[in-house]
Every structure is written in C-alpha cells, then in structure tokens.
Amino acid sequence: MTTSNIPFDANEFSGKRVLITGGTKGAGKAIAERFQRGGATVIVTARSLPEEKANNHFIRADVSTPEGTTKVINEILERFHGIDIIIHNVGGSSAPSGGFITVTDEIWQQNFNENLFPAVRLDRGLLPSMIERGSGVILHISSIQRALPLYDSTLAYAAAKAALTNYSKGLSNEVSPKGIRVNTVSPGFIETDAATRMIERMADKDKSDYATARQKLMDMLGGIPLGRPNTPDEVAELVAFLASDRASSITGNEYVIDGGTIPTI
Q: Has 255 been annotated as catalytic?
C-alpha cells in the first residue's frame, strides 16, 4: 500500500461499506486505500487480480457485462447485506487513433459498455437497499473529456462519459429526496503508474527526457495552468470528501479536478 501525505481521520468511514469498481490500479487503487485509511470496509471489483496484496475484499468480475454486474450485486447483498457508498471508477478507452472514421460500431458499444452501463446496472441492483435504509452515497467518476472531447482517439469514450454525467444528474434528482446523495467527479490528466510508463515511452521515442515528454503530453491536452497533472491521492481525497458527512448537503453536482485544463467556466 502506498502512503499518502494528506491528513485524514482514521475513523471517518468506520462502519461504512464501500464498493469501488476498477479499484486495483491508478486512481481507483488510491481511492480504495483512502477509504481503508478512513476505517471503511472496502470491497474492490476488477477484471484481474490485484498486483499486490491489499487489506480489502475483492470480487473478480468484468462489470462491463451484465453477468459481471450481477455477480457483484449478488455478492454485495449476500456477503455484506447492502452497501453504504458506491464509487463508480471503472472505465477507459483502447480505441485506435484516426478520428471518427476509425470508430466502428463495436468500439462505440465497447466504450458505453465500459464507461456507462456498469454504473447503470450496479445502481439499479444496489440502490433499492440504500433507499430502504434511507441513506447512501453514489459517486460517478466521469472525465473532463465529457466537455472537452479529443476527437482523434477518444471520441466514443468522451461521449460515454458525457452520458454518465447526464445520467448521474438525473439519478440524483430522483433519489436525493430518498436520502441518497449522488455526485460526479471529473478528473483531467492523472499521473498514474500507467501514465508514467506512457510518458517514459514517449521520451524514448522522441529521444528526450521525462520532463520534456511530460510537458509535451500536457501541451497535447491543451495545457494545464497548474503546471502538472493530478496525483491519484488528490483525486482520492476529493472523492473521500464528497462521500463523507462533511459533504452532507452536496448532491446533484459535478466536481472537476484538472489543474485548470478546461479553459471556460
């Protein structure tokens, strides 16, 4: 487990059951570790086993499929008798570059399967028990690309994240009166281990150093006024705040964490 320098309350999430999809790598892993440090019972789901042992409960499932979400829903209800907080972190894109002409029907469907439907299906299966208790928190991890799409290779991903943000707002309108808070977190560039490896490959290809390749990537995104990407811990801390009782009156909103990348308000 990595160590964060950000202060936290060791009992903040004591007694809370937290589900994090895609919680074995990158920002998802940092989010899982943050809730563990806050005393929560953490349940992580992903397609592959974690690379290192973690102090949480793991459900191996592909939540981009109906079968995978059904497996997670059944295990949560049977083993943990419900959930208090859901962090819909899973998502991503592996589409090729080349613009709209390269995005086939299969790629469009895959992006919606990976970035929208896991949240829709898991919410549908787990929300009833939250409503029965009259409390709960749902956070959907979207992306600034939902408002700032990059057409070359992630157009379908951006559209799916836009749909996720829209769905999140509509869901909040329905379930907030029943005691369930629903919000969206939209990160920009996060310097995860995977991003670091990509920057290193760029540096090798360009015969430059890491700092130059890192700046080139930020420039490709339109620039980051803060001068650096997000760290996974920073995203995790925003998620933890929104899931906590400190944010007890916040619902139906989107929170952007991008170092100022989006150039408009």
A: no
Of 140, 39, 130, whose CA–CA distance to 81 is shortest? Answer: 130
What confidence score (pLDDT) does residue 194 get? 82
pLDDT of residue 3: 57
Is residue 2 a contact partner of residue 33, using CB atoms and an 8 Å limit? Answer: yes
| Amino acid at the residue 73 | I
Q: Which is catalytic among the residues 157, 167, 210, 255?
A: 157
Task: State how far the Cα of 193 lies from the Cα of 25, in Å rounded to an integer.
Answer: 8
The C-alpha R_g of the chain, in whole angstroms, comes to 18
pTM of the full structure: 0.92
**How would DSSP label each residue in 178-242?**
GTEEEEEEEE--B--HHHHHHHHHHHHHHT--HHHHHHHHHHHTT--TTSSPBPHHHHHHHHHHH
With beta carbons less than 8 A apart as the criterion, state whether 180 and 131 touch: yes
